[in-house]
Amino acid sequence: MRETRNTLGLSARQTAAHAGMDVTHYSRIERGEGNATLHALVKIGAALQTDPGELITGLTLSDLPTEDLRGAHTADEFQAWLAEKRRRDDNK
């Protein structure tokens, strides 16, 4: 997002304003520290004149901060947690 924003010559404050969101929230999303809703991604995509899907293309579990992995410390641990959860859900 930052690269696209910089290419357009926009500041984080300007981008946030175009997206109709608080600059602090936008900045946290851009740094990968905040959780963006689909709604927010669509608004950011519009502000950056890009498809919202481009904002997340190529992201994997390993790109998430550790605290977002439901207590897992690695992507492998998260996958194991997810597989166990699905197994339990299938047995209900």
Kindly describe this structure:
This protein is mainly α and 92 residues long. It folds into two domains: 1-58, 434 Repressor (Amino-terminal Domain) (Orthogonal Bundle), CATH 1.10.260; 60-92, no CATH class. It contains five helices and no strands. It has helices at residues 2-7, 12-19, 23-30, 38-47, 75-90. Helix 2 (12-19) packs across helix 4 (38-47). The radius of gyration is 16 Å and the shape is elongated. The protein starts with a helix and ends with a helix. The mean pLDDT is 85.
Number of helices: 5
The shape, in one word, is elongated
CATH superfamily of the largest domain: lambda repressor-like DNA-binding domains
Helical/strand content category: mainly alpha
Helix fraction by DSSP (H/I, runs of at least 4) = 40-55%
Low-confidence stretches: none
Q: What is the CATH topology classification name of the largest domain?
A: 434 Repressor (Amino-terminal Domain)
Give the topology string: H per helix, E per strand.
HHHHH
Radius of gyration: 16 Å
CATH class identity of the largest domain: Mainly Alpha
Average pLDDT, rounded to a whole number, is: 85
> Could you tell me the number of beta strands?
0
Number of domains: 2
| Strand content bin | under 5%
User: What's the end-to-end separation, in Å?
Assistant: 41 Å
Biggest β-sheet, characterized? Answer: none
